[in-house]
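Students often ask what a holo structure prediction actually looks like on paper. The answer is less mysterious than it sounds. You provide the chain, you provide the ligand, and the output is a string of discrete structure tokens encoding the 3D arrangement of the protein together with zinc ion.
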Amino acid sequence: MKKIEQPSHIIISIIFIVLSIIAFLYFEGFIWKILVGIILLFISVANFSYAFSKKIPEKKAPTSNFRKFVDNALADEKFFECQNCDTTEVIPLNTRLESKLYATNKFIKDYDTDIEAEIGLEKYPMLCFKCNYVSYWAEYFPPKKFPEYFEVIKLNAKLKSEFIDFAKENNHLEKLEMIKSIEV
Ligand SMILES: [Zn+2]
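The corresponding structure tokens follow.
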């Protein structure tokens, strides 16, 4: 015998077969008996056969935008957010064509003055192509799904040239053109 994959549909099937019998026995008019009885019987049979089919994993179901939004919110993927206009992107930021955020490795270091050793917080600049502001971010320790944010400043000439250099070094040609086109 085939394995019952979805037992809840067996129960639904039984409920509808009972309803179908009730319709056959108690409905007055012949048309109603047949019509309602057959519809209920059909639902019962459909549920019965459905009970033996494997459940389709949710990932294979077509995804709506809302579904994608929920998935993104629940995913383990790291995401970044412009601290000026709230534009959000998941990683990788730099290599996806549609990404509106772009980060470089040209960090600035915040030294902890209480500690003598050469350690400090590395804050990386992230440019937003929607509002042309740069948000500085650093990794939490231990890392979280999102970074910690610091200064938020409008793109200036110095930062722009650093972003251009980084895009050239990494051959991010589309992003390079986008950075170049920003007026500072
Ligand atoms: Zn922005």
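The chain has a mean pLDDT of 86.
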